[in-house]
Write a structure and sequence with these properties.
With 282 residues, the chain is of the alpha/beta class. The protein contains 10 helices and 12 strands. The strands form 2 sheets. A 6-stranded mixed beta sheet has the order 2-1-3-5-6-4, with helices on both faces. The two termini are 30 Å apart.
Length: 282
């Protein structure tokens, strides 16, 4: 389709900042390949402006939005109904605006995380041992919930602000617990950076990966740069790694289906397109 009309279906990504987001690249590539009369746009409300934005979109002005830092917990609070994954996580990365004026919240971060681990660390079993999550924000909540639902026997939360780690553990419950950094990595099956500290070349979280088992899988949710300092430290130790770009792509698939009513078309390499956009190689 050469352009959109007044009947176009519209969805978007909400975050602050949002200029770095690759979600518009992925979704608009799928839209073009599928020939849909649709568009996917970035939205960046001011601090404190998320609830007003969500209220203003009630009634299906647009089909829905993905939600990224720092609004995932606010997104859940704005919803009238939520999926079990979003309720367990205490955060939402997907809001759907229904024609009846209600807002439905979901969390596809967990689906993306597990799919990325399966694809880039073949044979990985989340139930095989402890999981360590660095961070206690909305992304960490989604990861913790997904790992609990996948059978992880022990989910350890490490955060610079201990109170936030304890709050996350209390909210998700089950095998989730807050731990001190020095005690976190013993016997770890997977270690996940769910902070934004590595974004745009930052050093990422402090984690003594020398203490990690040789069998541990290391994942960084940051995807720009693709090879973060955290991933570099893991590879230097010979550990298997999973990148944030694969998680982004995999969590976007169910969002696209929810927005536009069709699966992303096969035969388009959105990973290659995303890598080109951020100036990275495979």
């Amino acid at each position: 389709m050469s352009g959109i009309t007044g009947a176009a279906l519209v969805a978007g990504i909400v975050g602050r900042p949002v200029t770095h987001s690759l979600s518009p690249v992925l979704h608009n590539a799928w839209i073009a390949a599928a020939g849909l009369n649709a568009a996917y746009v970035p939205l960046a409300p001011a601090a404190g402006g998320f609830p007003a934005l969500a209220e203003g979109l009630r009634g299906g002005v647009i089909r829905g939005v993905n939600v990224t830092i720092p609004f995932k917990e606010e997104a859940l609070a704005c919803a009238d109904e939520a999926s079990p994954a979003a309720r367990l996580a205490g955060a939402a990365n997907l809001l759907l605006f229904r024609d009846d004026g209600s807002i439905f919240a979901d969390n596809t971060d967990g689906l993306g995380l597990l799919a990325a681990l399966s694809l880039q660390a073949p044979g990985f079993d989340p139930a095989a041992g402890p999981a360590v999550i660095l961070g206690a924000g909305g992304a960490a909540r989604g990861a913790a919930a997904a790992l609990v639902l996948a059978g992880a026997p022990d989910v350890r939360i490490v955060n610079r602000t201990a109170d936030r780690a304890h709050a996350l553990a209390a909210d998700v419950g089950g095998p989730v617990r807050a731990v001190d950094p020095g005690d976190a990595l013993a016997g770890a099956n997977v270690i996940i950076n769910a902070t934004s500290l590595g974004l745009n070349g930052g050093q990422g979280p402090e984690a003594e990966l020398a203490d990690a088992p040789a069998t541990a899988v290391v994942m960084d949710m940051v995807y720009k740069p693709l090879r973060t300092e955290f991933i570099a430290r893991a590879r230097a130790r010979g550990l298997r790694t999973v990148d944030g770009l694969e998680m982004l792509i995999r969590q976007a698939v169910p969002s696209f289906e929810a927005f536009f009513g069709v699966a992303p078309p096969a035969g388009i390499d959105v990973r290659a397109l995303a890598l080109k956009t951020i100036g990275e190689t495979a």
